[in-house]
Amino acid sequence: MKQLSDSLLIQSYHKAIELNLSEEFVEQISREIKKRAIQNQLEKTVPRVG
Predict the structure, then answer these.
(1) Sorted alphabetically, which SUPFAM superfamilies does this protein's record hold (predicted)?
(2) Does the residue 22 lie in any domain?
Protein backbone atom coordinates (compact mmCIF):
# COMPACT_ATOMS: atom_id res chain seq x y z
CA MET A 1 0.00 0.00 0.00
CA LYS A 2 2.90 2.31 0.61
CA GLN A 3 3.63 2.28 -3.12
CA LEU A 4 0.19 3.60 -4.07
CA SER A 5 -0.21 7.29 -4.77
CA ASP A 6 -2.67 9.17 -2.58
CA SER A 7 -5.09 9.40 -5.47
CA LEU A 8 -4.93 5.69 -6.23
CA LEU A 9 -5.33 4.84 -2.55
CA ILE A 10 -8.52 6.89 -2.37
CA GLN A 11 -9.84 5.33 -5.58
CA SER A 12 -9.08 1.91 -4.12
CA TYR A 13 -11.02 2.77 -0.98
CA HIS A 14 -14.10 3.77 -2.98
CA LYS A 15 -13.82 0.69 -5.20
CA ALA A 16 -13.46 -1.65 -2.22
CA ILE A 17 -16.67 -0.25 -0.75
CA GLU A 18 -18.45 -0.43 -4.11
CA LEU A 19 -17.46 -4.08 -4.51
CA ASN A 20 -18.43 -4.85 -0.92
CA LEU A 21 -14.98 -6.25 -0.15
CA SER A 22 -14.13 -7.43 3.35
CA GLU A 23 -14.43 -4.95 6.17
CA GLU A 24 -10.88 -5.83 7.19
CA PHE A 25 -9.54 -4.78 3.78
CA VAL A 26 -11.54 -1.55 3.75
CA GLU A 27 -10.29 -0.80 7.26
CA GLN A 28 -6.69 -1.43 6.18
CA ILE A 29 -7.09 1.16 3.41
CA SER A 30 -8.78 3.54 5.84
CA ARG A 31 -5.87 3.24 8.28
CA GLU A 32 -3.40 4.08 5.52
CA ILE A 33 -5.49 7.11 4.54
CA LYS A 34 -5.45 8.30 8.15
CA LYS A 35 -1.73 7.59 8.43
CA ARG A 36 -1.09 9.82 5.41
CA ALA A 37 -3.48 12.44 6.80
CA ILE A 38 -5.37 12.66 3.53
CA GLN A 39 -8.91 12.24 4.86
CA ASN A 40 -9.76 15.66 3.46
CA GLN A 41 -9.04 14.34 -0.04
CA LEU A 42 -11.33 11.40 0.63
CA GLU A 43 -14.20 13.76 1.37
CA LYS A 44 -13.57 15.75 -1.81
CA THR A 45 -13.60 12.78 -4.14
CA VAL A 46 -16.52 11.18 -5.84
CA PRO A 47 -16.18 7.49 -6.63
CA ARG A 48 -15.66 6.75 -10.30
CA VAL A 49 -18.12 4.48 -12.01
CA GLY A 50 -16.72 1.43 -13.78
Answers:
(1) Sporulation inhibitor Sda (SSF100985)
(2) yes
The one-letter code for the residue type at 28 is: Q
Task: Point out the residues of the chain with pLDDT beneath 70.
Answer: 45-50
Domain count for the chain: 1
Q: Determine contact, residues 30/13, Cβ cutoff 8 Å.
A: yes
The domain of 29 spans 6-44
Task: Tell me what pLDDT residue 48 has.
Answer: 57
CATH number at residue 38: 1.10.287.1100
The model carries a pTM of 0.78
